[in-house]
């Protein structure tokens, strides 16, 4: 999130200590660069491992044997990417009009013709979302799934009665018709995770077997 030039709402003295998400990301990026002098290999391999929605994945969701997995590793690794993801992620900057807070309530974000709140998000590559993970063992491949992860970050939102029990201050917005704004958390995409689920067929067979055993005992 970004208050351009640090003077959104004319409340720099109040907002500055809280900072903004885009400033936080920029600061984080700069700190990674500074640390990269000590761990350059790790920095390049991890930070540059993001993918692109415009570049399709090769046979996403399909099972690959060991030889094909090695071929995929060679295809996707290069001088800047020294590792690949089982569930590839895409780094995106978004400018939403609103979002859901921790209470599941949709909140309207502050914006005008000059200012937009920006967020960096990590989303599942569209080709792999809700499909089996890559590089999985054959026995677990169909039980795996690439799922979207979410986390919460600060945002400047339109004040509503639901915020009255929170300790965030409210800010009058210039030219907003008397509306006030406050800080809240909103949900953002934060990564793509590989999850493995139990085999439903085997579980159903085990339940059926236990029921039959119980009947035989009777």
How would you explain this protein's 3D organization?
A hairpin with a 7-residue loop joins strand 6 and strand 7 (about 180-195). The longest helix is centred in the C-terminal third of the chain and has 18 residues, at about 200-215. Strands 5-7-6 form a three-stranded antiparallel beta sheet, with no helix packed on it. Strands 1-4 form a two-stranded antiparallel ribbon. It contains six helices and seven strands. The protein is of the alpha+beta class and about 220 residues long.
Strand/helix succession:
HHHHEEEEHEEEH
Helix % is 25-40%
Q: Which structural class do the helices and strands define? A: alpha+beta
Give the number of DSSP strands: 7
- The overall average pLDDT, rounded, is 76
Uncertain parts: 1-47
Oligomer: single chain
Features:
three-stranded antiparallel β-sheet; two-stranded antiparallel sheet; alpha+beta; 218 residues; elongated
Helix and strand arrangement:
Blueprint: H1 12-18, H2 21-36, H3 40-47, H4 66-76, E1 89-94, E2 98-100, E3 106-108, E4 119-124, H5 138-141, E5 144-158, E6 170-172, E7 180-196, H6 200-217
Helix pairs in contact: 2-3
């Amino acid at each position: 999130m970004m208050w351009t030039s640090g003077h959104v709402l004319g409340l720099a003295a109040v907002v500055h200590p809280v900072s903004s998400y885009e400033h936080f990301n920029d600061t984080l990026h700069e700190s990674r660069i500074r640390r990269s002098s000590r761990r350059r290999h790790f920095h390049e391999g991890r930070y540059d491992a993001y993918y692109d929605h415009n570049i399709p994945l090769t046979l996403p969701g399909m099972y690959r044997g060991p030889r094909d997995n090695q071929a995929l590793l060679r295809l996707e690794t290069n001088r800047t990417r020294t590792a690949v993801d089982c569930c590839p992620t895409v780094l995106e900057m978004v400018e939403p009009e609103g979002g859901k807070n921790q209470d599941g309530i949709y909140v309207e974000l502050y914006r005008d013709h000059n200012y937009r709140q920006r967020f960096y998000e990590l989303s599942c590559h569209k080709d792999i979302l809700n499909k089996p993970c890559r590089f999985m063992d054959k026995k677990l491949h169909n039980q795996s799934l690439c799922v979207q992860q979410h986390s919460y970050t600060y945002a400047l939102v339109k004040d509503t009665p639901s915020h009255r029990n929170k300790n965030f201050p409210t800010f009058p917005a210039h030219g907003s018709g008397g509306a006030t704004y406050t800080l809240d958390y909103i949900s953002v995409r934060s990564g793509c995770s590989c999850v493995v689920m139990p085999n439903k067929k085997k579980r159903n067979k085990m339940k059926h077997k236990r029921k039959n055993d119980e009947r035989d005992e009777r």
